[in-house]
């Protein structure tokens, strides 16, 4: 259920609830009967507000059933005989643009899935991961879009009229600004457009309520509008110019409580006919919001004054580093590039995601061609591709990319452990040579041009001990030699093996050798 709130001159809200009186109808299309039967038994469909009105084994058969049943939602497989899911989706959107399409996908069909998104599918489900909760979540998302797309059919003539006028104005048609319905609906001289991306929210209704309610202002009009071009909920706010700061401050105050929703706010404007101009601004801001995950309410003034840019990714160099097994250099290049790329907010989100999806594909192919065992990596690859595609922020993309890269290291390590690891030998040799110095993880990382956290993880993966434990072991072993073979005092030996704190030296010695340095000397010398 989705609630839209409109406020006129009174200080109370009039709540208009939009919900279908009938069940939301669904057609299932899959060439495997077991899949269709399984889906039918995942839910108590009618209890959840849905009804299966037909099923088909291919696209051609599905079109006939769709013509007969006019369903609200079609769930379709990708790979089918006669007419596949990709072609079926295009036909549905051409003939029945109001029908929402959900794709049922297997792991190896990502390119086809990405193509269907361009045709306007609402979501997709990986069949191997299909469960009741996930299925219901996707169905509800489709149902919400249906309600939003058809809100005008369930409201009063006045609201139908104003929504039609808003739609025409946004599409560039001339409208008579003196129309009574315009002046009655929007009696004030200042407007904002507020965009709400509830895809990030786990509780959409609660988010809507928290953002829009409790303005504590007598004169604020709120009219919802669903922008089909961006699947964005837009609220037209109309108020007196003198209340502008109050309205903005109240919005900012309310949105501080909701960090998981993507919100964007246009600059204020004074003429209703400018809605078409500012809807373009809100579409841009919504796209840009992907790059600013820490800003709850993004405005034009939040954007950097200079637009960041980045050089083209050097795929040839990256591939050469990888094939020459300079893995650290290649992967660090990807990480460094991702860090800079995440600031290039004018890049289309689809292009940004596509870049990292291609990187994931290329790495997987390179390792397979180099005879690495990529069995486990393949599983992580498809999971990462799915998560990257579904990500709402750059930070989420980075999180899933790093998860994939860590699995790459694991894949590489297994083979390296079988053949020896030259990089690890260099690290151990460096520690052996410099143990007596003030050696730190950060210092070693800087010497080898590694990120300290990456080096720590790398060391643990490739060695029995972590960095600190290994360094202490080397130092204490050298201390035992000096205790037995030299006349240096114990207070001199500590600094000679890298310990500036005598008590810490004694503590580590006893921890590793089971006795104090003096007891050790007495035992082996006297």
UniProtKB/TrEMBL annotation:
GO terms for cellular component: cytoplasm. One of its GO terms (molecular function) is DNA-binding transcription factor activity. It is found in: Cytoplasm. Keywords: Cytoplasm, DNA-binding, Phosphoprotein, Transcription, Transcription regulation, Two-component regulatory system. Its main location: cytoplasm. Residues 25-142 form the Response regulatory domain. InterPro entries: CheY-like_superfamily, Homeodomain-like_sf, HptR, HTH_AraC, Sig_transdc_resp-reg_receiver, Tscrpt_reg_AraC-type_HTH. SMART domains: HTH_ARAC, REC. Pfam families: HTH_18, Response_reg. PANTHER family: HISTIDINE KINASE-RELATED, TRANSCRIPTIONAL REGULATORY PROTEIN HPTR. This is AraC family transcriptional regulator. It comes from Alkalihalobacillus alcalophilus ATCC 27647 = CGMCC 1.3604.
């Amino acid at each position: 259920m989705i609630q839209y709130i409109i406020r006129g001159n009174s200080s109370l809200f009039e709540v208009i609830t939009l919900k279908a009186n009938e069940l939301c109808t669904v057609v299932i299309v899959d060439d495997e009967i077991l899949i269709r039967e399984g889906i039918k038994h995942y839910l108590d469909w009618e209890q959840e507000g849905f009804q299966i009105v037909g099923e088909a084994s291919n696209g051609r058969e599905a079109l006939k059933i769709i013509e007969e049943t006019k369903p609200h939602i079609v769930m379709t497989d990708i790979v089918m005989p006669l007419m596949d899911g990709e072609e079926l989706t295009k036909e549905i959107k051409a003939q029945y643009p109001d029908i929402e399409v959900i794709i049922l996908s297997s792991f190896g069909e990502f390119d086809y899935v990405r193509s269907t998104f361009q045709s306007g599918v609402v979501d997709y489900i990986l069949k191997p991961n299909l469960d009741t909760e996930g299925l219901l979540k996707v169905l509800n998302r489709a149902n919400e879009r249906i309600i939003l797309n058809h809100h005008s059919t369930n409201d009063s003539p006045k609201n139908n009229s104003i929504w039609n006028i808003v739609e025409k104005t946004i599409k560039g048609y001339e409208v008579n600004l003196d129309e009574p319905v315009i002046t009655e609906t929007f009696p004030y001289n200042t407007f904002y457009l507020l965009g709400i991306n509830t895809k990030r929210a786990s509780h959409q209704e609660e988010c809507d309520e928290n953002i829009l309610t409790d303005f504590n202002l007598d004169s604020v009009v709120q009219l919802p509008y669903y922008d089909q071009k961006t699947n964005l909920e837009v609220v037209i706010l109309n108020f007196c110019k003198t209340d502008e700061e109050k309205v903005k401050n109240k919005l900012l105050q309310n949105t501080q409580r909701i960090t998981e929703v993507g919100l964007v706010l246009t600059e204020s404007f004074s003429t209703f006919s400018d809605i078409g101009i500012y809807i373009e601004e809100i579409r841009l801001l919504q796209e840009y919001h992907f790059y600013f995950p820490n800003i709850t309410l993004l405005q034009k003034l939040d954007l950097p004054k200079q637009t960041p840019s980045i050089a083209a990714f050097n795929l040839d160099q990256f591939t050469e580093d990888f094939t020459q097994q300079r893995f650290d250099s290649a992967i660090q290049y990807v990480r460094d590039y991702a860090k800079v790329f995440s600031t290039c907010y004018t890049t289309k989100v689809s292009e940004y995601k596509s870049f990292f999806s291609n990187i994931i594909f290329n790495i997987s192919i390179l390792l397979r061609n180099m005879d690495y065992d990529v069995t486990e990596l393949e599983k992580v690859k498809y999971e990462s591709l799915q998560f990257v595609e579904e990500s709402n922020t750059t930070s989420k993309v980075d999180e899933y990319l790093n998860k994939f890269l860590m699995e790459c290291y694991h894949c590489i390590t297994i083979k390296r452990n079988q053949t020896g690891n030259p990089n690890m030998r260099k690290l151990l040799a460096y520690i052996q040579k410099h143990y007596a110095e003030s050696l730190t993880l950060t210092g070693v990382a800087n010497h080898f041009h590694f990120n300290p956290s990456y080096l720590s993880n790398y060391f643990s993966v490739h060695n029995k001990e972590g960095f600190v434990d290994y360094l202490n072991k080397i130092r204490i072993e050298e201390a035992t030699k000096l205790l037995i073979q030299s006349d240096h005092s114990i207070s001199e030996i500590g600094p000679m093996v890298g310990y500036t704190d005598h008590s810490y030296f004694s503590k580590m010695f006893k921890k590793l050798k089971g006795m104090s340095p003096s007891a050790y000397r007495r035992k082996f010398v006297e």
